[in-house]
C-alpha cells in the first residue's frame, strides 16, 4: 500500500515555522514549491479533475460494453432460433 504524502500546504507551513526571517521564508517557500513541482512532474501525476473525468468515461464505456454484449447475445440467440427453424 502506498503512503499518502502530507498536503503540500502543510509541508510549506512546517518549513515556514522552521525558518525565521520573512525574506528567507519567502525564498525557502519558493524553492520548496519548485522542488515539489519538479518531483510531481517526474512522477507523471495527473490532476484530480482529469482523473475524475477519465473515471467517468471508463464507467460509461463499461456500461456501453455491457449493453452491446447483451444485444449481441440476443441477436445470436435469434439467429440460432432461425437456423433451428430452417432445419425443421
TrEMBL record:
It holds the Pfam family BMFP. GO terms for biological process: ubiquinone biosynthetic process. Residues 51-85 form a coiled coil. Pathway: Cofactor biosynthesis; ubiquinone biosynthesis. Keywords: Coiled coil, Cytoplasm, Ubiquinone biosynthesis. InterPro entries: UbiK. It comes from the Bacteria. The keyword Coiled coil applies. It is found in: Cytoplasm. One of its GO terms (cellular component) is cytosol. Belongs to the UbiK family. Required for efficient ubiquinone (coenzyme Q) biosynthesis. UbiK is probably an accessory factor of Ubi enzymes and facilitates ubiquinone biosynthesis by acting as an assembly factor, a targeting factor, or both. PANTHER family: UBIQUINONE BIOSYNTHESIS ACCESSORY FACTOR UBIK. This is Ubiquinone biosynthesis accessory factor UbiK. It comes from Chromatocurvus halotolerans. The gene is ubiK.
Amino acid at each position: 500500500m502506498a503512503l499518502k504524502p502530507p498536503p503540500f500546504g502543510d509541508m510549506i507551513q512546517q518549513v515556514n515555522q522552521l525558518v525565521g526571517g520573512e525574506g528567507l521564508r519567502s525564498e525557502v517557500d519558493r524553492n520548496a514549491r519548485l522542488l515539489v513541482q519538479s518531483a510531481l512532474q517526474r512522477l507523471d501525476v495527473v490532476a484530480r479533475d482529469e482523473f475524475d473525468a477519465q473515471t467517468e468515461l471508463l464507467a460509461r464505456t463499461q456500461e456501453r460494453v455491457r449493453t452491446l454484449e447483451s444485444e449481441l447475445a440476443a441477436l445470436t440467440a435469434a439467429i440460432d432460433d432461425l437456423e433451428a427453424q430452417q432445419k425443421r
